Structures
1.
Amino acid sequence: QELVKERETQNLLIKDMKTTINKNHDKLKKMMKQLEEEQVRRESNEKQIQSLETLSRNQEEAFNKQSKQLEDVRGELSQLKSIRDAIFNLSKSGVSAPGGY
């Protein structure tokens, strides 16, 4: 009879251990799934960051190109103003056009 009680006790312990192992296994599976989801999120975020960095570089290049164009236009405008001022000064001084017209 003692052997039967001991056997029952062992069976109960084994059952408890199996239950605990199953619970831990389920927890581990849940944690693994969460880790995989987190990894997917991080990879997605990294791709977005790379896209934003590329976009920023492209915008910076476009800005630099427009700045250069603006600089060129300002230089041309300055030259045109100088020509306009020279023409105005010539007309003010009464210098006639070549050929006596």
2.
Amino acid sequence: MTGHLLQGNGVSVNIFKYLCIQSLHETRFSFRIASTVVFRMCPIVWYENVRERGVKGITMRQKPGNQMDVGSIYRHFGRKQRNTVSDVVCCFVDQHGDRADHEVSYMTQKNLHDFLFNENAQRYGFLQEFIYPG
């Protein structure tokens, strides 16, 4: 028997897939979820928020595969937010192996560049834009 889409060890990238499915059923959210790219060695899926003009709320959609190159990812996730004192632009949640604990790395623009353009990197987890509280 197959478990629920969100079943797992506490950090499930399937939550983004679930939110996209809900968006297809005209569900709108009153909150914003950070843009997220799932990696299984290379980027396999990119989820983003969409605010449609004249429609109340936010939907989540999967970005097309032809827009998922590392250059596009760097341009999107490497943008520094205005009016912030921190250099953090995103974080990566490492899901390597079957561990229940996950390592989170906060990245500056330089860290992100090194992470994305290192051909030998072992990337298994998800990259998420950093949204500053406030």
